[in-house]
Amino acid sequence: MQLTRDVFDLQGRSDQEIGDFLERYSIGLTLQEAKQLQFSILKRPPSVAEFVLFGIEGSEHCSYKSSREHLSQFITQGPEVVLGAKEDAGVVRVARDRQGRGYCVVMSHESHNHPSQIVPYEGAATGVGGNVRDICCMGGEVVALADDLRFGDIETPQTRWIYDGVVSGIAGYGNPIGVPSLAGGLQFDRGYQDNCLVTVVSLGILREDHLLHSYAPPGADGYDLILVGKPTDSSGFGGASFASFDLDAEQHEQNKGAVQEPNAFLGRHLLQAAGALSEKLAELGAHHRVGFKDLGAGGIACASVEIADTGGYGAEVIIDQVHRDAQGLPPHVVLCSETQERYMYASPPDLTPLILAHYNEDFALPQVSRGAEARVIGKITDSPRFRVIAGDEVIVDAPACEVTRGFLYDRPYTDPVVAASPIPPGTLPSWSGSRNAGEDLLALLGHENIASRKPLYDRYDKQVQGRVVVEAGLSDSGILAPFNSTDYPEEIRRVGLTLTTDQNPRMNRRDPHLGAVLAVVESYTNTVASGARPAAVSDCLCYGNPEKPQQMGLFVAGCRGVAEACRELSVPVIAGNVSLYNESATGSIPPSPMIACLGTLDDYGRGITQSFTHPDSLVYLLLERQGRWGGSVYEELLNTDEAGSDPAFTPVVGPLPQVDYGKLRAAGETVLAGAREGLLRACHDISEGGLGVALCEMTFPRSLGCAVSLDTPGEPAAFLFEESPGFVLEIDPHREQDFLALADHQGAKPVLLGRTIREPRIIVEGVWDMTIEDARTRWEQGLMEKLL
């Protein structure tokens, strides 16, 4: 058979003609890449299907063509890392049974930014769907979800509409599939007005020797390619390419077609079916004989060529064998559509009947959802080529390795210029002297980026599966008991996991390197404050247009920051993605390295919450305040208030925090050892709103007050509201000497702040004295009022 269908020869055509062709078929190639495809890679005129395929596989979303070089500096291995950032999800060992068998956590972290900005509900829902399928394809049972969301100005109707659609979409998929929400983050900032960020983390569990891989195993020549799930339609066509260009407001309606359509109930059914099949394969000792991959970006094309080429093979796909939802779809659309709720297996022929019967008969896919089924649509071949046949014509014939390699760029970049603060640490602008610190505290507690996240968390199911021990918002990390059933050996049932997500747009806007460092540091301190040891991080690196040297420089600085902090804190990066082109006509988003941290507890019962528990406890501070309030919500508050009264006001630039890794590690080890030895009654990390807000939040759950004093050489507000990393601890006075000895052994220097008190008051000597009720009311109502 010859390559005859829809060939488009670039030879002799003008750049305008080529550009019109690429736009007409929604092909994500630049003019130079299109020419490279014809004249250097294929050395012949490509078909439309080949142009589309290389546009998808060569996109930033799939090939990391601008970022690969910079991601290589990340630590992706560690003593307990089973699988680093190589496949659909990372895998880290968290327990062993008495037979020495390992039990693992599977971690996936993805973004769905552009789709969620255009169609919030569907964009966010399909982001969750794809994320949990990544866990499933590794053989894992999905046990937890988290999301970290960024939206524009909360005062605008557009932001509230997008927020509501996104949260509804996450709930509309996560709740029906029966996976609890364990953690999440939420920030509003004008920098995300035209480019919201929707990042999702999923956790799964599996026995280490039951791990599945997303590539064809050795000896796979002649394996069947089995497509499972929803019938293919045109939804989501061009989604990966769409995610790799700036958002254009004028193409809003056109871009809607690039967003997939979710079906959460079919998604749940497929998760159950895939889990049951993984168990069958394990019982047969055949789990290592298959490859299993989610159909995400690029649909059938990308799944088939990646599952083949990663194993060192080629593949042949027969388009006419693909089940579809509509007649007349062009072959290249069937090949590259990103229809949701689909998987692909590379299966040895002797297992193929079992897999087909499992889905079509045991789990009755055709009866559960119209048109859904499992079908053989091609084969793995010893030939190193990727071929696609439609009717009696070949529409793709290319070296498989060239398809998956994509394009590689060494983008020029300019290093960011970080403005130094003219204001020394510990001081505030001269015009701030008339401010009242107590009033500022109430304003911070009611700020949309500090106030209670209950309006968000209450939209999600937090207790389904019966594994959540501490819900999001009650501790600095959600706490999970993943193995707490008779399905697992008794000796590992007390093992606990924690999950947290972090990123601060204000810090990253001021200094993209430090902002990335602090995102990792806060995920570390949140994890430690829950009593858990950080085991691994994942990241979604969301930035602007890499073709602009200034934007590329922000990305490079962010990568350096993440790599540095993970190296210094000995935490490997095992999963994540890169999302570039988060930019519109109004500009780029703030640099946004979205970090998630997985922590482990030997016993989930030793997890710590942030609530004061007893009167007359001692309140200690670990990591003294520096008076560096730059990049904080307080700095934003100062500037917002002053700008409101003077349109010509120039924003003040406060001194940014500094990170001393030695002191941070010493403080972290003190908290972990103190939790393990039962010396800590409560712990809270210091983040948005600083020490002042942290003290308030510790009093809210039990209405148990505190009276503290702060010995500072400058303005108290500069120290109380700065957001440098640190911990506030509640210590049993009878164990104080044990705690101090422990801290001394670790090289940490705790500072005694004061005590907890029975009276429902929050007292900072000489600064404020307010009732818990006043503070808590402001905190509880702050976000809720603004979302109405």
TrEMBL record:
Domain PurM-like N-terminal: 87-205, 496-600
Domain called PurM-like C-terminal: residue spans: 225-389, 667-764
Record SUPFAM superfamilies: FGAM synthase PurL, linker domain, PurM C-terminal domain-like, PurM N-terminal domain-like
Lineage, broadest ranks: Bacteria, Pseudomonadati, Spirochaetota, Spirochaetia, Spirochaetales
Residues in Phosphoribosylformylglycinamidine synthase linker domain copies: 24-65
Pathway linked to the protein: Purine metabolism; IMP biosynthesis via de novo pathway; 5-amino-1-(5-phospho-D-ribosyl)imidazole from N(2)-formyl-N(1)-(5-phospho-D-ribosyl)glycinamide: step 1/2
Primary localization: cytoplasm
Name this polypeptide is given: Phosphoribosylformylglycinamidine synthase subunit PurL
Amino acids binding ATP: Y64, D539, G576
Protein's cellular compartments: Cytoplasm
Residues binding Mg(2+) 1: E110, N577
Encoding gene, per UniProt annotation: purL
EC number: 6.3.5.3
Active-site residues from the entry: H61, H112
Record Pfam families: AIRS (PF00586), AIRS_C (PF02769), FGAR-AT_linker (PF18072)
Species per Swiss-Prot/TrEMBL record: Alkalispirochaeta americana
Residue numbers binding substrate: S111, H112, N113, H114, R133, Q260, S579
Top-level EC class as recorded in UniProt: ligase
Residues that bind Mg(2+) 2: D134, D294
Gene3D superfamilies, A to Z: PurM-like C-terminal domain, PurM-like, N-terminal domain
